[in-house]
Design goal:
249 residues, two-stranded parallel sheet, 34% helix
Length: 249
């Protein structure tokens, strides 16, 4: 079991992904990370979502956020997860009895050790003012829409593995896979990556979300059958979405 710090919110423009992928009534496989890919796909109409991550702590953080959205008022959620940087024990007390025992035990132990909840997070202050532009549920009406969905939704199936191990854990058929920027950590080239992705039983794959993609890299991905899209970025420039469709490969 790998345990590292977690991202509290995504730094990817999830709102504009719906212009590239059709999420309604789909089966989704996504990296867990901050959980925001999961929540955004639900809001976009996904029928079923399964998640994976090498970092087991992402599951505990995700369950805390999942439970918070189900239970808290919008203002309380923003107070705890945005304003107070997760360090609000009075709001945590409202959530504690609704958490699975292993999750509440984990956060209770942080309290016993006098560690702030924010100590489990990767600090990413550069995106602090852009969250609402890229994450739909941080807008009040969408938060309550998501809340209504979660209150009739069970926690998703979670695979504790890295991407290259994933075909050993699931052979299910998915419509869309969301793989974030994992490619950057694999030390393989686009041709090798495409060969690996053929092992996933998935129609459309977000193979790479990245802020920077050189002309040489774009040419290499394109040569190997990937499509490249640009969407408004979390910084000043556009971000790149490298996609692979098995419908035409």
């Amino acid at each position: 079991m790998t345990i590292e710090k977690v991202y509290d919110f995504t730094n990817e423009n999830l709102i504009d992904l719906s212009k590239i992928y059709h999420f309604a009534d789909t089966n989704i496989l996504t990296v867990l990370g901050s959980g925001d890919q999961y929540f955004s796909a639900l809001l976009a109409g996904a029928k079923n979502i399964e998640v994976f991550d090498i970092n087991y702590l992402t599951l505990y953080y995700f369950i805390l956020k999942f439970t918070a959205i189900k239970i808290l008022l919008y203002e309380e959620f923003i107070q705890m997860f945005v304003v107070d940087n997760l360090d609000n024990l009075s709001i945590y007390a409202k959530l504690r009895n609704f958490l699975p025992l292993k999750v509440s035990d984990f956060f209770d132990n942080l309290i016993r050790l006098q560690r702030k909840f924010s100590s489990i997070k990767i600090h990413n202050t550069i995106f602090a003012n852009t969250k609402s532009k890229i994450i739909s549920y941080l807008e009040k009406s969408e938060y309550y829409h998501l809340q209504s969905i979660l209150n009739r939704t069970s926690l998703p199936k979670f695979y504790n593995c890295n991407l290259l191990e994933l075909p050993n854990f699931t052979t299910k058929k998915y419509d869309i896979a969301l793989l974030s920027n994992i490619y950057h950590y694999l030390a393989i080239n686009p041709k090798e990556y495409k060969e690996f992705l053929s092992k996933l039983n998935c129609s459309d794959i977000l193979a790479l979300y990245t802020w920077i993609l050189s002309e040489e890299e774009q040419a290499e991905f394109t040569k190997n059958g990937f499509d490249i899209y640009q969407i408004p970025g979390v910084l000043k420039n556009n971000d790149y979405v490298v996609s692979l469709s098995r419908k035409r490969v």
